[in-house]
Amino acid sequence: MKFLGVIPARYESTRLPKKPLKDICGHTMIEWVYKRALKSNLDKVIVATDSVEVFDEVSSFGGDVILTSENHLNGTSRIAEVCEKITDYDVIINIQGDEPLIEGDMINSLINIFKEEEKLQMATLKHKLLKKDDIENPNFVKVVTDKKDYAIYFSRSVIPYPRNENWDIYFKHVGIYGYKREFVLEYSKLESTPLENSESLEQLRVLENGYKIKVLETPYEIIGVDTQAELDKVRKYIVEKGIKI
User: Domain of 85: which CATH number?
Assistant: First the structure.
């Protein structure tokens, strides 16, 4: 079984324009993501972008990169294009291009579950939430799972409803995915669904169509970068912790 890591990298961002090329302690964000992904057990890592600027940047630091259409509405659609062009990998790991502190062990946990469960089609991660403010934050997507660690639902709302105020059972969805290559192509052709549109959460399309998503717990909490404030937070964190690319 061969594993391909794909990093979708869209150049334009409403809240943080030219996000992949933002400097983080001497390296661009996309370089941080790419080189930290290389620390995993992936057979290959590739950046999928609609931007010549990002293509040139990745090429400049020796990374593998492919130009994709400018018309993709989401990362999954962009990854599907990669799957149509690159056919010799069994499992695709979708690595977010705005998470410069991605840990190799997070990727490895997804790789391992696909090796253990050959019939698995899709998997993702969750991280335990400990603060009430985080649990109630609609920007933190929550996930609930069954006893076999398959997703029941994802929501921006507080799920489950805290009628008995047990704050020890909440998990944040960590937006890294693993899929079988064939499933990516199938999934990308599905029409958007009511719950997906209501929550603005693409993974709900999978559940609404009757497919299962395995959800593994990770001890790592990733700082995603969507705003200038989050970019500043990551820069400060890297300096304080002495993190190297």
Answer: 3.90.550.10
Any domain includes 146: no
Look at residue 26 and tell me if it is in a domain. Answer: yes
- Flag whether 158 is in a domain: no
- How far lies 71's CA from each of 68, 75, 81, 217, in Å? 9, 11, 11, 34
Query: Which tokens belong to 199?
Result: 């929550």
d(CA 181, CA 122): 10
Q: Considering only CA atoms, which of 175, 234, 179 is closest in space to residue 211?
A: 179
Please check whether residue 91 lies inside any domain of the structure. Answer: yes
Q: pLDDT per residue over 49-106, tens digit each?
A: 999 999 999 999 999 999 998 887 777 888 999 999 999 999 999 999 999 999 999 9
What range does the domain containing 75 cover?
3-125+174-241
pLDDT of residue 69: 85
Give every residue of the chain whose pLDDT is below 50, as ranges: none
Structurally, how many domains does the chain consist of? 1
